[in-house]
């Protein structure tokens, strides 16, 4: 089969590798949808000399159908023909972190991140341990399942940590795939949403997704603008998804006393002056994707509330279009891309 790799320097290559065969405890999935995630761009943009595994097939938002199972595989999630998502991490399976659904936090063994350490989903087939599978509801498209497998699931995981409710006014910094997912999920939970970005196309999308206010961060002093929209108090919560230092600083400065700030954007370096924050009694949290239970809970919520995750996708590609797809995604304008088969 052929799959997409990142050899570095904003290049994409389609390489040929053997079709996967499942070993004990493993399954092979026929990939129906493989989402493009903002974190892909960090690897895509890296210099070639810094890519440790240029031969690894990328893609960590897998969704598809089980087509083969190895010895010892049981359970309804792994039956042949099952529609599934993948929780794209794997650890020792025995430690407290793994057993609580957080294999990405495993300390007992080096974790495997599919699409980074082992072959991912930008290919016709993908081999994974059966215990990484999450069922995909029949009411969800494969593309929606791919979104939940990382981007949308990341917003969900952050909200689980932050404890968002319908009483909150939430400022979402960045309206890329994670930020737009946050806007959709927060509105479905009854929150008032202020969407921020530097791209007017993404802000227009956020407005159609239900954002109560949109702000182009290039045009205004952001903390002042948010205070103006909140009768001088500031947002009760802020979620930073852009991975930009300026967005992180603005998020911290835009929340009211006793407010909560969630930080999920990879790549930002944020300096904190404690004396400036102490008297506001802020709660500042980080969040790393979601647990495997959280991934399933997110999917259930999307179905129960009738959220149209397919609206996230503005670009649908074949694997043969991967170079064009990542060049377009690198512009960071518009919505989300997905490879479909």
From TrEMBL:
SUPFAM superfamilies: GroES-like, NAD(P)-binding Rossmann-fold domains
Entry's EC annotation: 1.1.1.103
PROSITE patterns in the cross-refs: ADH_ZINC
Molecular function terms from GO: L-threonine 3-dehydrogenase activity; zinc ion binding
Keyword check for tRNA processing: no
Cofactors (names): Zn(2+)
InterPro entries for this protein: ADH-like_C (IPR013149), ADH-like_N (IPR013154), ADH_Zn_CS (IPR002328), ER (IPR020843), GroES-like_sf (IPR011032), NAD(P)-bd_dom_sf (IPR036291), Zn_alcohol_dh (IPR050129)
Keywords for this protein: Metal-binding, Oxidoreductase, Zinc
Enoyl reductase (ER) domain: residues covered: 8-339
Domain of life: Bacteria
Family: Belongs to the zinc-containing alcohol dehydrogenase family.
Protein name stated in the entry: L-threonine 3-dehydrogenase
